[in-house]
């Protein structure tokens, strides 16, 4: 989590600096002054940003009109958005109850979480209400185990050891590089300048790391990294519904959580929660 916070701080700083620079350029463009005579029409800007300034020679008023936006409109850049904070749930062959061979993975529901966010994005807006974009970011599933066990690394299948230790924390987690493709439908702005968003699409992810983190009086804090047979590439679907800058999300992965471990066949990952930043 320290690395996550460090990465987030750096990314926010870069985004903030970029935004200030873009804002400064925009202000400079809009504040350029041009002296004209009454009854003239002057166009400022370039392309879809061009504005027509009509000065009425018989009245002392000036009307500024902007040209309509040109679509499709492409965008690409760094972003800190779609921060997912939610709960993760294991689905065992269609059931929320773990089968006997998976009972060692019993977990504390309110402490088993999913965290993720996007860092980069490339997309195309087809009109004011519809956009498609491909983004990339990170996603963590943090399973808080109930049993006093240790998931063993470097084993031919997912294997655990029963311990005579009372762990105050026994967390089994995976981290993925997530690459969702989003179809974003949004409404027009309301009186408060906010919109409803309805977003859905496929989500793929590449395994970065698996980890067991344990805290006990006997051994203190321990971290052991391995792939733990987490599936190398996972794929599924997601949906988000939001208003303004926040909303709710749900994600479900179609393939198994673990690979090359027959006893865990049919064990899948489902998560839901709150999304910040659309």
Summarize the structure.
This protein has 278 residues and is mainly beta. It has one helix at 2-30, and strands spanning 41-44, 51-55, 62-66, 73-92, 113-127, 130-144, 149-152, 159-162, 169-186, 196-216, 220-226, 233-243, 246-253, 267-276. It starts with a helix and ends with a strand.
Write up what this structure looks like:
This protein has two domains: 36-69; 71-276, Porin, CATH 2.40.160. It has an eight-stranded antiparallel β-barrel. Strands 1-2-3 form a three-stranded antiparallel sheet, with no helix packed on it. Strands 7-8 form a two-stranded antiparallel sheet. 10% of the residues lie in helices and 53% in strands. The radius of gyration is 26 Å and the shape is elongated. The chain is mainly beta.
Descriptive keywords:
278 residues, mainly beta, Porin, 2 domains, eight-stranded antiparallel β-barrel, three-stranded antiparallel β-sheet, 14 strands, 10% helix, disordered N terminus
Element string (H = helix, E = strand)? HEEEEEEEEEEEEEE
Average of the residue pLDDT scores: 84
Overall 3D shape:
elongated
User: What strand line-up does the widest sheet have?
Assistant: 4-5-6-9-10-12-13-14
Would you count the extended β strands for me? 14
Q: Say what oligomer this is.
A: single chain
Q: What is the CATH-assigned architecture of the largest domain?
A: Beta Barrel
- Classify the beta-strand content into a percent band: over 45%
Count of helical regions = 1
- What is the structural class? mainly beta
The CATH class of the largest domain, by name, is Mainly Beta
Share in helix: 10-25%
User: What is the CATH topology of the largest domain?
Assistant: Porin
Taking the sheet with the most strands, its summary is:
8 strands, antiparallel, barrel
Low-pLDDT sequence parts: 1-55, 62-67
Q: Note the gap between the termini.
A: 23 Å
Give the C-alpha Rg.
26 Å
- As for the number of domains, it is 2
């Amino acid at each position: 989590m320290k690395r996550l916070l460090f990465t987030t701080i750096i990314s926010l700083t870069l985004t903030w600096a970029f935004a200030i620079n873009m804002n400064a350029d925009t202000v400079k463009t809009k504040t350029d002054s041009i002296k004209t005579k009454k009854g003239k029409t002057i166009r400022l800007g370039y392309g879809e940003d061009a504005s027509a300034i009509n000065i009425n020679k018989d009245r002392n008023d000036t009307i500024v009109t902007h040209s309509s936006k040109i679509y499709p409109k492409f965008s690409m850049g760094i972003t800190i958005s779609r921060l997912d904070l939610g709960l993760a749930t294991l689905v065992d062959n269609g059931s929320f109850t773990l089968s006997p061979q998976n009972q060692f993975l019993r977990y504390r529901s309110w402490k088993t979480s999913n965290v993720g966010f996007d860092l980069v994005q490339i997309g195309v807006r087809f009109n004011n209400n519809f956009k498609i974009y491909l983004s990339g970011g990170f996603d963590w599933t943090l399973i808080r185990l109930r049993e006093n066990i240790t998931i063993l690394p470097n084993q031919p299948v997912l294997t655990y050891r029963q311990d005579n230790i009372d762990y105050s924390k026994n967390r089994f987690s995976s981290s993925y590089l997530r690459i969702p493709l989003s179809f974003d439908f949004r409404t027009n702005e309301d009186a408060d300048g906010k919109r409803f968003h309805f977003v859905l699409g496929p989500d793929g992810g590449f395994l970065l790391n698996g980890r067991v983190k344990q805290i006990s009086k006997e051994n203190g804090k321990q971290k052991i990294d391995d792939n733990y047979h987490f599936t190398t590439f996972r794929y599924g679907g997601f949906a988000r519904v939001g208003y303004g800058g926040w909303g709710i999300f749900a994600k479900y992965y179609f393939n198994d959580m673990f690979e090359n471990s027959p006893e865990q066949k049919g064990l899948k990952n489902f998560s839901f929660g709150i999304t910040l930043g659309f």
